[in-house]
Each structure stands twice: as structure tokens, then as C-alpha cells.
Amino acid sequence: MQPVIWECFVLDFKDTRDYLTKILEWKQVKKTKVKCLVDTGASQSIIFEHIVRDLEKVELGFTYVQGVCDKPAKFRVVLLGVAILVDNEPVVSIHRVLIPAEKKVEEKLLQALKPHGAEAILGRLSLDDLSVGIEPKTNKPIKLPILII
Fold first, then answer.
1. Which three-class secondary structure state does DSSP give residue 7?
2. What is the tally of helices (H) and strands (E) in the chain?
3. 44: CATH
4. Residue 148 placed within a domain
5. 100 lies in which domain range?
6. For labeling, which of 18, 44, 60, 109 is most exposed (least CB within 10 Å)?
7. What pTM was computed for the model?
8. Confidence label for 68 from pLDDT (cuts 50, 70 and 90)
9. Does the pLDDT value for residue 57 go beyond 90?
10. Which of helix, strand or coil describes residue 97?
11. Dihedral Cα 35, 37, 40, 46, nearest 10 deg
12. Could you give the 3-state DSSP secondary structure of residue 116?
């Protein structure tokens, strides 16, 4: 199975809020474009400090993540905007993303992503927050209806 790579955007927290409340237009939002490995097996999205350095974010503390290395690894938890273009329209949400707090972990993840041309990991919870799924034939993002069960 081929990896799914999407062009995504990481957005400044305040600008995302202002975009979602119609104060700013999409072209006014401070953002960084990144290629993301879409990983439905990963619950959280992982972004790297060099990508978000110039973006405002809300720091929520630290957590430890299992499965990235031999032992649980320390990550910063931040709120940021994340967006994907679906049919040339931005689908935008504010949610939690993880940033490696340890240089060794960051280097290991970047090495794993490099062969796929990816710069970040887009996890399952980000897909849910955005109400976006993977179109099975094309692997492109598609908008999903919000389900309340």
C-alpha cells in the first residue's frame, strides 16, 4: 500500500480563530504549507518546531507518546490551526498537535518521513476534527458529513 501524502497547512492560532469567525479571509491567514503523511493509525498529528516557529500557538503542556521510539517519548502539546484544501476550498479547524520535545525523537521521525517526501504526520483525530476522509480510488481528501450517533 502506497503512503498517502497530502498538502496541508499549519495556521497561526489567532488567525485561524479570526478566519473561522469571518474576521479574516483565507489569503490573510498566516500559515505554513507542509506535506503530510496521512496516518490513520496515529491518533495525534505531529508537527515539528521549525515548521511552526513563526506561528502563534497555545501551549498546553507536555505528554508522553508510545510507539515513536523504544520507550515513551516526550512531546509538547499545542493548539494550532490545521487546514486542507478540498475542491480548492480550505477546510479549517483548531486542534491539538504534538511537537517532539526531544531532539533525538525529532531526528528519528524526520528520517522516517523523508523517503515519502513528507514533513509532518496528519493523524486520525485531525481528520475527524476537519471532517475529512481519504477517497479510496484517488487517495485525495474528501469532505465527510458530521455524524452524530
1. strand
2. 4, 8
3. 2.40.70.10
4. no
5. 5-143
6. 60
7. 0.92
8. low
9. yes
10. strand
11. -80
12. helix
The rounded distance, in Å, linking the Cα atoms of 119 and 132 is: 20
Amino acid letter, residue 14: K
Q: How many distinct structural domains can be found in the chain?
A: 1
pLDDT of residue 148 exceeding 80, the answer is no
Q: Which amino acid is at 132?
A: V
Rounded to whole angstroms, how far apart are CA atoms 142 and 134? 6
Q: What's the pLDDT at 85?
A: 96
Distance CA 65, CA 130 (A): 23
Kindly indicate the confidence band of residue 1, based on its pLDDT and cuts at 50, 70 and 90.
low
User: Residue 149 falls within a domain, yes or no?
Assistant: no
Question: How far is residue 110's CA from residue 38's CA, in Å, rounded to a whole number?
Answer: 15
Q: Is 114 part of a structural domain of the chain?
A: yes
DSSP sequence for 24-76: S-GGGS-EEEEEEEEETT-SS-B--HHHHTTS--EEEEEEEESSSSSS-EEEE
Q: Is residue 68 part of a domain?
A: yes
